[in-house]
Amino acid sequence: MKQKREKILLVVGGPGGSGSSTISEMLAKHFSIPRIYAGDLFREKAKEEDFESFEEFLQEISEGGNSLDLEIDNLLLEYSKVGNILIESKIFGALAKVRNIPCTATIWLDCEMEKRIERQISKEGITGIAKIWKRFEIHRRLKKRYRIDKEKYQRLYKIKYDKPSEYYDIVLDTSNLDEVETFNLILKELEDGRYIK
């Protein structure tokens, strides 16, 4: 008789350009579990309210007390209770640690700013002289987003956004790794650390 596998709850986070979305998709496919992406939930709301700039939307909800953040984080909490799911979120891994929510493993992907900018440019298919302006724009956008997130998570949850090693089981710098190398390293960490049986 085949032994039933325990329910899996994986949480993946990381700043924009770290590879968290790509790796989340790969892990969800590998373990045959659905992926819930918090960013999609925020973007759907921004679209509903006709915001052209996602950063402007984040700034406005931050100034308004972040009730949407709390609503989405509570929704993710409900998903986490079901199990057999991967949650991609910039904060849920840390929140799980603070609130003692049992996870199979929490993973944080970090990356140097320059590499994150390069990845964003490549993703958007920018070439030629346009890359100069786009590089400046992406750098400004990523810095602003980081600042908003850091302030928000400290205020809402007393979480140190710039100290992921205090909250996550696996913290990996992807600056010099491609997606396959990153994925394989994470699988090895999951197996060696006995997170996955």
Quick recap of the structure?
With 197 residues, the chain is an alpha/beta fold. The chain has 8 helices and 5 strands; from the N terminus they run E-H-E-H-H-H-E-H-E-H-H-E-H.
SSE diagram, text form:
Elements: E1 9-13, H1 20-31, E2 35-37, H2 38-48, H3 54-63, H4 67-82, E3 85-88, H5 92-98, E4 105-110, H6 113-124, H7 130-157, E5 170-173, H8 179-192
Parallel strand pairs: 1-3, 1-4, 2-3, 4-5
Helix pairs in contact: 3-7, 6-7
CATH level-3 fold name:
Rossmann fold
Tertiary shape: globular
What's the total helix number? Answer: 8
β-strand percent reads 5-15%
- The helix-strand sequence is EHEHHHEHEHHEH
Work out the oligomeric state of the chains in this entry.
single chain
Q: Any idea of the CATH class?
A: Alpha Beta
Stretches with pLDDT under 50, minimum 5 residues: none
Whole-number radius of gyration?
17 Å
Q: Please name the CATH architecture.
A: 3-Layer(aba) Sandwich
Tell me the strand order in the biggest sheet: 2-3-1-4-5
- Number of domain units: 1
InterPro entries: P-loop_NTPase
Pfam families: AAA_17 (PF13207)
Organism: Candidatus Dojkabacteria bacterium HGW-Dojkabacteria-1
Protein name: (d)CMP kinase
